[in-house]
């Protein structure tokens, strides 16, 4: 690179570092960043800085295809530079996005490779993050709650020793969700509230929104619809302000569920469709499966058979594509009810039995 090119690249890197939370800033400069990529070829450290600046933005904003491309570039560069730490971090982040896209086996390979690197380097912060992601994969896709609990239980110690308070809060949130799934709402609430305290100390709006979203789920499970709606509404505001697109999608879906249970079906449909649009924009197939499932169940309860069948069938297809066992069980349950009421009762019974068998294994 000549001096002008160096100044151009360094300027873009500074802008990218400053604009990580601005949904539009880096996307407006992507053409320049691609040009900068060509300029930094052979300069390993600048290549890695450029990949981090762009990759973190793409991951946060939900541009999964673009992130996968940049992450794979980064892994190749990190290996050629002998930068094991960066290689492990990129593998971990790549695994996270692959899991969200439904590429479960590839995600598992990335996490296991990252875990080996961070164990070798004794990097507590990254060990915690990778153990956390392995736990999520086991809980959400492989249905092994025991192994997920093992990963989640090991992770906070590494985060605490490394002084990674944000990482500790993230793991405690997932541990709370697992306790909730295992039927222990009191343990779940303790973990969620512990995570919320950490996040409030740090002033992380998007993360606070995540904690409020989980606490809203506990209130929803307890039948406190007004309380749940209040927390979800606060979470949505924080996540929108922070530009957390995946979080916005999740909370829109949850608000739709509350409104449905309150009998406000038209408003619920509005929120579900907003959530669908948000999920489609970021390519979140797992989220789409959940929203289609909820919308299909709403139409089932309204005896709108064709719409119910359409959305539930789409949800089942997505759940199968990404290998999400819990999601498949839920959709099969709804389809079984639909068949029992409006179709083949024997087929409906078969679907319900399959749903129960999946739930028992999980």
Task: Please characterize this protein's 3D structure.
With 362 residues, the chain is mainly alpha-helical. It has 19 helices and no strands. The chain has helices at residues 3-18, 25-28, 30-39, 44-61, 64-81, 84-101, 104-121, 124-142, 145-161, 165-181, 185-202, 205-221, 225-242, 245-261, 265-282, 285-301, 305-322, 325-342, 345-361. Helix 14 packs parallel to helix 16 (285-301), helix 17 runs antiparallel to helix 18 (325-342) and helix 18 runs antiparallel to helix 19.
Distance between the termini: 55 Å
Percent in helix: over 70%
Report the biggest beta sheet as strand number plus sense, adding barrel if it closes.
Answer: none
Tally of extended strands? 0
Q: Order of helices and strands, N to C? A: HHHHHHHHHHHHHHHHHHH
List the uncertain runs.
19-26
What proportion of the residues form beta strands (DSSP E)?
Answer: under 5%
* Mean of pLDDT: 85
The Rg value, from CA coordinates, equals 22 Å
Global shape: globular
Oligomer classification? single chain
Tally of DSSP helical segments: 19
Structural class: mainly alpha
Short description:
This protein has helices spanning 3-18, 25-28, 30-39, 44-61, 64-81, 84-101, 104-121, 124-142, 145-161, 165-181, 185-202, 205-221, 225-242, 245-261, 265-282, 285-301, 305-322, 325-342, 345-361.
Task: Describe how the helices and strands are arranged.
Layout lengths: L2 H16 L6 H4 L1 H10 L4 H18 L2 H18 L2 H18 L2 H18 L2 H19 L2 H17 L3 H17 L3 H18 L2 H17 L3 H18 L2 H17 L3 H18 L2 H17 L3 H18 L2 H18 L2 H17 L1
Helix pairs in contact: 1-3, 1-4, 4-5, 5-6, 6-7, 6-8, 7-8, 8-9, 8-10, 9-10, 10-11, 10-12, 11-12, 12-13, 12-14, 13-14, 14-15, 14-16, 15-16, 16-17, 16-18, 17-18, 18-19
């Amino acid at each position: 690179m000549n001096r002008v090119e160096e100044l151009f690249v360094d300027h873009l890197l500074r802008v990218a570092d400053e604009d990580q939370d601005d949904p539009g800033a880096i996307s407006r400069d992507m053409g320049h960043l691609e040009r900068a990529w060509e300029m930094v070829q052979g300069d390993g450290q600048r290549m890695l800085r450029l990949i981090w600046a762009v990759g973190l933005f793409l991951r946060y904003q939900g541009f999964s295809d673009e992130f996968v491309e940049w992450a794979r570039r980064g892994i190749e560069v990190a290996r050629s530079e002998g930068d094991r730490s960066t290689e492990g971090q990129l593998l971990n982040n790549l695994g996270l996005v692959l899991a969200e896209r439904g590429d479960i086996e590839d995600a598992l390979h990335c996490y296991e490779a990252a875990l080996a690197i961070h164990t070798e380097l004794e990097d507590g912060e990254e060990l915690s993050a990778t153990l956390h992601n392995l736990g999520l994969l086991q809980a959400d896709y492989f249905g092994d709650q025991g192994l997920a609990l093992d990963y989640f239980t090991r992770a906070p110690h590494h985060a605490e020793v490394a002084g990674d308070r944000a990482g500790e809060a993230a793991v405690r949130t997932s541990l709370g969700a697992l306790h909730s799934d295992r039927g222990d709402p009191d343990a779940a609430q303790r973990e969620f509230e512990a995570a919320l305290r950490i996040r409030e100390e740090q002033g992380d709006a998007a993360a606070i929104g995540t904690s409020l979203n989980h606490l809203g789920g506990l209130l929803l499970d307890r039948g406190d619809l007004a309380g749940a709606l209040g927390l979800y509404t606060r979470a949505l505001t924080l996540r929108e302000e922070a530009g957390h697109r995946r979080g916005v999608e999740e909370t829109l879906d949850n608000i739709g569920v509350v409104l449905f249970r309150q009998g406000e079906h038209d408003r619920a449909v509005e929120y579900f469709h907003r959530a669908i649009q948000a999920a489609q924009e970021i390519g979140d197939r797992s989220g789409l499966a959940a929203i289609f499932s909820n919308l299909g169940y709403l139409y089932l309860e309204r005896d709108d058979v064709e719409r119910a069948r359409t959305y539930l069938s789409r949800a089942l297809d997505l759940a199968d594509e990404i290998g999400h066992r819990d999601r498949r069980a839920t959709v099969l349950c709804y389809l079984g009810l639909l068949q029992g009421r409006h179709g083949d009762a024997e087929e409906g019974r078969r679907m319900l039995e399959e749903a129960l068998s999946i739930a028992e294994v999980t």
